[in-house]
Amino acid sequence: MHRLPPLSRRDVLIAGGALGAAAAFLPRPSLAATPAADGVRRFALKPMPATVPLVGNGHPDTSVWGYNGSVPGPEIRALQGETIEIAVENGLEQATTVHWHGIRLPNAMDGVPHVTQDPIAPGGRFTYRFALPDAGTYWYHPHLGSSEQLGRGLSGALIVEEREPVRVDREMVWLLDDWRLGRDAQIVGGFGDMHDRTHDGRIGNTVTLNGRLTEQLPVRAGERLRLRLVNVANARLFALEFQGHQPQVVALDGHPVTPHAPKDGQIVLGPGMRADIILDMQGRPGEQFQVVDRFYRQMHYRFVDLAYSDEAPLRDSPLNASIRLPANTVPAPDLANAVIHRVHFGGGMMSQMASARMDGRTVGLREMFQHGLAWTVNGEAVSGHLHDPLFRLKQGQSCRMVLENDTAWFHPIHLHGHAFRVIARNGQPVADDAFLDTVLLAPRETAEIAFLADNPGMWMLHCHVLEHQEGGMMGLFEVG
């Protein structure tokens, strides 16, 4: 297993010593604000250029873009039911917005340029304010120039704590990311590359945990951990296997699920997806266990080691306390009376698609590529965020959406403003109590999702492989 797996011939590995780097697991900066007299928690974010010790071990610091100058950005925490206000000042030389991924918030606060707000110009300001209806693990990131802005480091965690949390000894948030770095530890350019757009996106050669190349994570025998896992990468999918341990999944995309062991022992996360797990540390003092990423065939690698301290065990047997999280407030859809809409995703390399509609006319693939487009939604290749909606729903109407992946690639499809249930895959019913905002579609797979359209506005539906989104795999639906 290689610490820095090369994923294409064009990727350049960090030279020599990085393979043996042993970065400390550093705490993330936090913006845990005390509520003001009006009960609102207030925060300030500034996306800006910065330098950070991404690789460490004697390598130069990496020039990045970070919120408040850090990678990842400051962790924002609040309680379920509270209202937060985030004043954003744009310190970049290009326009930006901030999207609050997974939060069921008012449409005007969704951060989609030209759809819900004007872009925040360089030096400009915008204040987001919204209530937090659901506890869980969420995150924030730009929604303008997303491939480059996320690829240079702009992301951060938004944690909404339960009023009655489960009992654990420690909680950690893991932001999983990857970077395409050169031998000088600097980010390689080429954002918008058509090879990335037409294949599996911009996959990097250096994987980080909370913005650092991390070799070991110190743990103590007998303790119970709650890990909040967030995939903030542009395109990389993860399948984490906790060797020697038995993780229990307690939430997906922020929302509680019936606690269960992950399928095949692997926690699979596409870009934008999250999982909360409970991990009882049942190793012995001084032992080490690997956390391995096994998603890509023949590219398995050690993500991090769980390194047990020499301290005496905190307890001799697992903590005797429930790990089931309290339910959120997401309304269930009415399947019997739901309207049905089909959304067909096409394009990309190895596609059988010969043409598509673009700007109201039929064009061939070559002309699409010349305009930076490679993917279609319902036969349409679109650029930018603002265009005619795929369909319209009445507020309060239930919807069954059939998502057809007619491509050779994986697509994590993200729905804004709502949470849904997956009710079928490839025509077979799914017995699952999970509410999600992102569903991972395998090549040639069809999934049916269902949700109650209770949040009015114009909402995005798109692939969260950011190069696929910018290459045309996005659409809008309207609720009103």
What would the CATH topology of the largest domain be?
Immunoglobulin-like
User: What gyration radius follows from the Cα positions, in whole Å?
Assistant: 22 Å
Number of strands: 33
- Sheet-strand content, in percent, reads 35-45%
Strand order of the largest sheet: 11-10-13-18-15-16
Number of helices: 4
Major sheet characteristics: 6 strands, mixed
Shape: globular
Average residue pLDDT = 92
CATH class of the largest domain: Mainly Beta
Q: Look at the helices and sheets and give the structural class.
A: mainly beta
The N- and C-terminal alpha carbons lie at a distance of 52 Å
What is the count of structural domains?
Answer: 3
InterPro entries: Cu-oxidase-like_N (IPR011707), Cu-oxidase_2nd (IPR001117), Cu-oxidase_C (IPR011706), Cu-oxidase_fam (IPR045087), Cu_oxidase_CS (IPR033138), Cu_oxidase_Cu_BS (IPR002355), Cupredoxin (IPR008972), TAT_signal (IPR006311)
Protein name: Multicopper oxidase
GO cellular component, one term: outer membrane-bounded periplasmic space
Keywords: Metal-binding, Oxidoreductase, Signal
Observed structural traits:
Immunoglobulin-like; 3 domains; 480 residues; six-stranded mixed beta sheet
Fold and architecture overview:
The radius of gyration is 22 Å and the shape is globular. The protein has a 6-stranded mixed sheet with strand order 11-10-13-18-15-16, with no helix packed on it. The chain contains 4 helices and 33 strands. The chain is mainly β. The longest helix has 6 residues, at 146-151. It folds into 3 domains: 16-164, Immunoglobulin-like; 171-308, Sandwich (Immunoglobulin-like), CATH 2.60.40.420; 335-479, Sandwich (Immunoglobulin-like). 5% of the residues lie in helices and 39% in strands.
